[in-house]
């Protein structure tokens, strides 16, 4: 049921996988290059993220081809695996039905979770964190407890190698290890902790080598108190309401996310959902310390609850927080909600917990569904959102166009959708993610300038005006919401365009 619902709920984006973004497309492009024998430890154009998600995507490309669907599936399957790992931990202490109801919070979730589950990179790191937690949970009542502890420690640090966001989870992994390793025998407790430390020391080696490489930059992982005031405002006004479900951002077309005006009935569900969430968290805090709660339930509840203040605190001091899309940095506490709710599910005996959690699950499901726009309209699902891209690629290839230029949010998604024919580079040199593309662009005498009416920051009229002022000869091609100016001049002879 959990696996089926995980895929069914995400059918709209899966059926429109070609409606991907450039950040995810970079992963797909690097996966294509990995299959050709080209490898880099860093993600193309990144100084802190690695190519782990690209390697995972490459595995999916082998049987399915380098398609947007395979790219999205590579990430979504990772999220479903994370969900099942959480379920596996919960079933060690709760009935299967209760565990299944708990992990519905990972099935019906708000848009910030979708950002990782549907669009790489990052999901591989999140899945590795929960694999580490599962290994640690297996320490309990196992004759191979040291082996499980070492595997958990190693996997937690490998997750940080995959993406630095996983560093946020290390205190949770450490607490989980301390609580699971607890044993009346002092020697056994120290043995388990020591094995976990040895595993972590082994897992940290790739991370140390990566951070020590000349290409690495560490500004994204630094914390500073200078940003607290700004981050608090973003948290209070945009990110936290979005995560809690009382405010939903949805695109009018593609990239133009605005607050969704919900009907009164939906607003009522949103606020009931918030009350449900707050009530469950408060009840869990009480039950974690109350007598009668089994130790196993108590410890996973404590880890889940700690994720909330830890995530919010990290958000407040992170230099990466910009706008409402920074809600993705609050995902950690959403992923641990099933654990945080575990004490209540144990006390409520299964079905009653489902009744208590229903308002929150309904609110999260509605918010996540609305954010699928334009792939959904109400309950109706739309398909074929990437047909304009396919048709434009065919036209450009028919004209012999081998290279193009566009805004960043158009450039790499089109390069991936076009299968690098033509190659599309960003209009700003600083946004280059893969320098060889720029070198190919520089060698060509003709190129196209692409404008997507809903993704490009630069309007079509501005591009046309600059072309006219430069005196360049060009042909204009229009396919749906895409416009291409095919410029018949060497790129270096088109001032204000290729030279930007």
TrEMBL record:
Keyword Phosphoprotein set for record: no
Ranges that cross the membrane: 69-90, 97-115, 146-173, 193-212, 264-290, 302-321, 327-346, 353-372
Keywords, comma-separated and alphabetical: Membrane, Transmembrane, Transmembrane helix
Protein name: Glycosyltransferase RgtA/B/C/D-like domain-containing protein
UniProt source species: Pendulispora rubella
